[in-house]
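Cross-check.
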Amino acid sequence: MPVLDRRRFVAGALAGTAAAGLAGPFAGFANAAGAGPGPGGTPPAPVLGPVPDARDGIVRLHLPPGFSYRSFHDTETPVTLNDGTLLPGRHDGMAAFPGPGGTVVLVRNHEVNNPVPAFGNAALAYDAMAGGGTTTVQVTLFGEVINAYTSLNGTQMNCAGGRMPWGSWVTCEETVNGPDVGPDFTGVSNVPLTRPHGYIFEVPAGGTSNREPIRAAGRFAHEAVALDPSTGVLYMTEDNFGYPSGFYRYLPPRGRSLRAQRIVDGGRLQMLAVASRPQADLAASQPAGARYQVRWVDIEDPDPTFPYTPGQPAPTPNDVALNHVGSQGRVRGAARFSRLEGAVYDRGTVYFTSTQGGGAPEPGDSDTVGGWGNGSGQVWAYDTLQRRLRLVYESPGPEALDLPDNVTTGRSGALVLCEDSSGDNYLRGLSPTGAIWNLALNRLVSSTGTPRFGDEFAGATFSPDQHTLFVNIQASRGLTFAIWGPWSSVGM
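Predicted model, tokenized:
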């Protein structure tokens, strides 16, 4: 969801997978149990400069010396996929998997809101009147497209998600729209929708989703997921943009997700609370290196439905539906964050971003009053074994880090942060010890000559061999980049 819309609203396969397939976020699980936290000392601070796109020679990114890139699936002009589907725009979260012959398979979100006809085959869609979903793309390490098709359709606001170690992508709906709730921040009626939204769905790499939501994992404004492969617990973020957000975990029934190599429905949903501080306000500015012992509180009603008459406006306001799940946790002492977005697991730790965390508390902040979060962003780390939460980085201002969103990890353990600001947008590197540096700068210009520097980066993910970073730039149009170069020279 674009930052301008958010601000306007606020103001108004596991064991059998090869080690290469577990690179990136699961490298520690596959190859480095007990490995250190990542790079030590201060990473290099490369000077970014203009680099022409290998597709057509136009400069779209500024990168460090020695790096190249190619863009593809640019929906400024219509793109038809191999299955005949017109590619939707608003490219967002994404994951990379090993493909045949050294290629890469990308599963990519499309964050389309409001009731519109589903792309792809409407007969297969979860909701024939929802325009979001995922597309799957097979590419070379240099961004040359081999195949592309619809892998999930009929969902809505597919924002981020998470890569599963058995070889699938879990995509998240950042909404609770449905025929049973009133209009969201756009003011558009939800009456045309045929199914409730606000769920997570699994999409196998190289295949298509069964289009069945994991209902026990909650109906709320899901953003990202990160699976702990030692336990099968799924950690989830919530981007409840006008209100406090929560950090959740989903406990599948008796750890069945790992055995089944898929996310199994019917488990238990819980929300993080600080052990000694009920309803702790972690959206506010924190002491450097803040650490908290945590506990988890149960959510009794994770999958609400609300009364409505088909074809008639729903009596339940969207804001009430947005807060239904989170309010249950906060009554039991769950912590309050500001707009939790990206999440990634690495070496026993789940890193997640608080996009507007770190600001001063605002008067009147509550579950039902907008204004939560007016900072430039925070990055948190949750130690899954010690049950300890640590502040990795809090931005002192937009020049250092401006509204971090999606996140991934490199071979070294350093993070790649995608910015979602209304000004210049960067990819930033961040060490687990809190050192930050620049990796890329958006210098996209439309075909009409309009600068699009404020379009957000999204979906950063390394190829399984760490050769190429794939990342999207999102807007009503969208495009994907393959970036390659000497990653170790820039701390990755």
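The chain has a mean pLDDT of 90. DSSP finds four helices and 26 strands in the chain. Passed to J.P. for a second look.
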